Amino acid sequence: MRSSWIIGAAFLAASATLSHAAEPDLAYGAYQRGLYQTAFREANLRLEKNANDAAAMTLLGELYNQGLGVAMDPKKASEWYRLAAGRGDANALASLGLMALDGRGMPKNPAQGRTWLEQAAAKGNALASHNLALLLLTSGNDEDLKKAVELLRKASAAEIPDAQHALGVLYLKGRGVERNSTEAARLFERAASNGSSVGEVEYAILLFNGDGVPASESQAARYFRRAAAKGNAIAQNRLARLLVAGRGVPANKVDGAAWHILAAAQGLADPWLDQAFKDLSAEDRKRAEKLAAERLGMR
């Protein structure tokens, strides 16, 4: 389940809380610039001035949790998060929730993790709303499903791309909501605009099939290419197929073979494409392999 969580609550904590300080915020400014040791020092200086500075505590928790500027120490991270959470910091609560669910820095405790996520979501933390929704979606309980939909709506409105994708999937499947491919397409497009490669893939599929949006193979190819460039294996595979068939893009077997090589390297096999590229000349195969290597090196 860990791979589904969105982390980074402390980053939002700093941007939402520390930046509103009356004087320039040296701790978060350093964090933003990647000067993590400086951020660590400045956060501690803040606590010397104000022992109840919850935002500074959360920032220290983030530094220890991610091993930024200090040795990674989940236990210390959880201790700082607990101190901040005790002072009402929503972002610390959100981070604690994930740590309890994963047993990171503390014994695994799903019930406590859910409670912390609920508290953070109630305070308006969008990442907590998304992560709590993911947790509720696994329960198989209809009431939890309804809650998950509402939480995903809140997180989507806050422009969390993974939440927009997740809610789009629910609309596409008609799970917890009435099936609505038009709304699914709108959400996938928003997720894609916010940088989600899975959103790009889902939107491309709807564009290709004309489901919820007017059909456009050329637009579908563009979204597949965007996601493929980010390393999405499904997008690489679909783009390769389009390049072989010349649908939405001019036919180009060398380009298609390069994308197929990258998708196959991630474990996505495709016998149809294997057959399509069977007759590539040795020179074209070498060109495809070189192109694939160049694309891999660009990421």
Automatic annotation (TrEMBL):
Tagged with keyword Phosphoprotein: no
Keyword Ligase: no
First and last residue of the signal peptide: 1-21
InterPro entries reported in the protein's UniProt record: Sel1-like, Sel1_AlgK, TPR-like_helical_dom_sf
Origin: domain of life: Bacteria
One matching Pfam family: Sel1
SMART domains in the record: SEL1 (SM00671)
Keywords: Signal
The protein, known as: TPR repeat-containing protein
